[in-house]
Amino acid sequence: MKATLLGRLALLAIVPLVALLPLPEFWFTQLNYIGLYSLVTLGLVLLTGIGGLTSFGQAAFVGIGAYTTAWLTLNTELSPWLTIWVGLAITAASALVLGWVTLRMSGHYLPLATIAWGLALYYLMGNMDALGKYDGLLGVPALTLGGIDISRGKPFFIFLWLLVFLGAFALLNLLDSRTGRAIRALRTGSQMAESMGVDTLRHKIGIFLIAALFACVSGWLFAHFQRTVNPSPFGLKMGIEYLFMAVLGGAGYIWGAITGAALTKLMEDQLQVLLPRLIGTSGSFEIIVFGILLVLVLKYLPDGLWSLVARLRPPARRTGVPVDGPIDLPTRARPGHGEVVLQVQDVRKTFGGLVAVNDVSFEIRAGEIMGLIGPNGAGKSTTFNLITGVLAASGGTVRLQGETISGLRSRQIARRGIARSFQHVKMIPDMTVLENVALGAHLRGQAGALRAMLRLDRREEQRLLALAAQQLRRVGMADQMHELAGNLAMGPQRLLEIARALCADPTLLLLDEPAAGLRYKEKQALAAVLRQLRGEGMSILLVEHDMDLVMQVCDRMVVMEFGTRLMEGTPAEVQASPAVRAAYLGTEH
Ligand SMILES: Nc1ncnc2c1ncn2[C@@H]1O[C@H](COP(=O)(O)OP(=O)(O)OP(=O)(O)O)[C@@H](O)[C@H]1O
Fold first, then answer.
1. Distance 372 CA to ligand 1 centre (A)
2. Which domains can be identified in the chain, with CATH numbers?
3. With 0-12 CB in 10 A as exposed, 13-18 as middle and 19+ as buried, what is 564?
4. pTM to 2 decimal places
5. Is the CB of 546 within 6 Å of ligand 1?
6. Is residue 494 in contact with ligand 1, taking CB distance under 6 Å?
7. Where along the sequence do coiled-coil regions lie (predicted)?
8. From ligand 1's centre to the CA of 378, what distance in Å?
9. Cβ–Cβ under 8 Å, residues 241 and 294
10. Minimal-distance CA residue to ligand 1 atom 18
């Protein structure tokens, strides 16, 4: 922590020191453009590289910041120090509306909507008399601080780059937090994050908003730096160029944003001189080179140039937040041993004409492991998805401790005390095991994005990480907590999912084929963990194909066939049943 803080202070101190260097004015102008681009790409890294949402419309948000301050300072007495807030408010309102409409839909709606948005705003700026049409607005006043003009040269350089670094630190803080883990989970699709209680739509809109606000600040600075605004720097071409900068630098890395912005600006300048000379005619040929470069980077270095630097550093290891501190988080009231925890009553699911689950009923009691077995296509996963809210039931009721949960969304069900694992492990490979597990504790914290950015979340963060470490010890993975999750073998990956689910302090644990892909020893370790959890009073529903494991650990089991409940009984009763044997062998019974 201290090392990080010192490093950041050193970076901030370097800015005024660089300004003291006897560099030609031209270089400061270059660095100023790089800083302005970096502010936009920082937001894009969060949005696209980390959140997995593509926007071609960031230049339009830059335009809003620039035009707002230009128009207001030219037509009213407002100081630029006030117009920035107006620009931010307009940006926030447009980003919220755009995000709210498009982010609810999956697929390519956001990229398409941002293209439409970029084009619409470009033509709006170019056609409004009040905004000077395509000539724009001239004579934007200078930005002054204490009577000093800070809108050009070295003073602008210092102000701008301090903002760039502070913005980068805020984003780094954000990513290293409860909200940051939720944001990083967005790329894996919404199912896993929602089952941890994350409101994925809110988080998507949140990062879209943050990226737009970063772009707006860049536009505000740009208007006072250029002293004039016109639509061309805010068009779709520039929107694509910002995306190129983020991809080139490394869309998953905060420092990749600055790297990409710097390289693009420097290359652009060189190419604009060199290419017309080589070709013998003038034109924007650099765009062709950028296009080729983009293809090459995506093919050979999909994580961008910064990934080369990131590879040199040791795997992420948190030293700042101690993981053995007090946990001190509120816990759920536990049901008494033998009390009914889950009641599945006449649950039904149809897909068109197919009845995948046909009026199935069963109960799970506190402190027992219930197996849900059956041949392929019997309806186990569908039943699992009906309980966890991934699918809406066509009929029947599911109750958790007497409260009806059917019809609720999966994050609402998670809040009520059901935690789950996935048939195909869902985790974030470039986060550490500890961070992945801490994602399971999402609902046990409250700190939001702003608190995280300002580092006011440390007490809570310490508790969440201590809790994650405790659950990792519980499943025997204490030694691996600082490894990258992507490096784990299948056995530990399954245990990671169990530890993550346990972080939610669940009343009921639902495990979807946890033994799939495990070797014998790993299965034994899994069986030991399940028995230990039952010993601690946990109720577990186990959907599993591995009969050895099921017979070893389950107290009772429900057997399904063709969507219906074939029988329910102890492992011995199920094993002795001719009907079950026939179902598995595919013979008549
Ligand atoms: N989204 C869906 N749309 C249409 N049919 C579906 C859908 N999901 C499942 N089904 C069908 O419902 C039936 C039950 O499938 P389900 O995946 O629940 O079985 P399962 O017992 O979990 O099988 P497995 O052991 O192979 O995972 C199957 O016939 C399957 O093809």
1. 14
2. 25-307 (1.10.3470), 336-417+506-589 (3.40.50.300), 430-504 (no CATH)
3. middle
4. 0.91
5. no
6. no
7. none
8. 7
9. no
10. 379
